[in-house]
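Schema walkthrough. Field components (list of strings):
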Amino acid sequence: MLGNFSYCNPTKLYFGEGAVKYLNDELPKYGKNVVLIYGSGSIKKNGIYDEVMTILNANGKNVAEISGVMPNPTLAKLYEGVEIARKAKADLLLAVGGGSVCDYAKAVSVSVNCDEDPWEKYYVRFEEPTCETLPLGCVLTMVGTGSEMNAGAVITNTQTKMKVGHVFADEKIMPRFSVLDPKYTLTLPHYQMVAGIYDIFNHICEQYFSGEDDNTSDYISEGLMRSLLHSSRIANRDMNDYEARSNIMWTATWALNTLVSRGKTTDWEVHMLGQAVGAHTNATHGMTLAAVSLAYYRHIMPYGLKKFVRFAQNVWDVNTSGKTEREIAEEGLKAMEGWMKELGLPMNISELGVTSDMIEKIADSTLVMTGGYKTLDRDEIIEILKESL
Ligand code: NZQ
Ligand code: ZN
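Field assembly_structure (string):
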């Protein structure tokens, strides 16, 4: 542990079956005007909308709605939501959905009282809010992003083909409270469940594959990865296994609620590559990560060999006897590849609609991070994208 840090996570969590009833404890803390934010209809089909509305009505709230928040929420949709929240004089934003809905609600929160253009301010200049922000609560229905307990908000500008995440430093942007009921996730299609599982795994990898210090956060990460591998295999065989699904939900939150990045450097280049692919294809977030990961990790492995050896030993139980460091590291990535195939994840970007003539443009949309074992240049980005085809 070499780094100095501060740590504060103010989000209050209510976890477990039936946890939605705790909205009754939270709602009285805010004014009467609630803006309910949700996606394209899953919560109406599975009954979550009715449960939440009943509680809002019982608490005497005036409810306005922003519906139709799409996966990979767009800037145009953000402008629309800001207008609705302004008109409703919102006292509280209540996001009911997955990472897209929760991220979007954060973007509305920082934009409602902002006179500047939110894209320019938050996604080009990466500034912090200078206006009053709206409090946000979240009822999570899809597991993966960690948005329920972090200050990240990813928005896609379909005109410039940039999908950009802003992780706000101000902890006021984190949800004030989040309801995590694993039962709410049981209606997810298999595709979304495994996309979320890979998103979780990669969040941990992004924070793990960086730095060479002896860092407690890395030991926590290894534990989280082992738990996820165990539970994901059970959930993949039986999507209704509540114990596995609840463990996955809890792991997702810890994978990206800022804890495992404390005191260490982090990478995030897989997310930059994945987000660029997402900006050009609108593919599901976790799948874009899966499709570029192995090419990226094989590319950087020689620069961070010792960490990849540790990963192979501590996460994948690779038997090291008689093997070189390189062989051990490669076996770790092979084991990871096997697990990804077992889940049915896409192993290349062609499956997501990328064709070779798109590579240059996707490279143009890829932001370069400097915390990993190798800072990529443009040629390397193109090489990795071609390897991922
Ligand atoms: O829109 P509805 O009808 O609700 O359907 C959604 C959507 O189609 C569906 N779904 C959600 N809960 C369901 C359900 N279907 C059935 N039953 C349920 N219980 O699932 C689909 C995907 O939902 P979405 O919210 O898009 O998924 P996810 O949670 O993976 O969020 C992805 C977004 O989060 C961003 C991604 O870039 C992407 O835009 N991220 C946010 C991060 C953060 N805040 O820190 C970090 C991540 O790395 C990620 O970048
Ligand atoms: Zn992610």
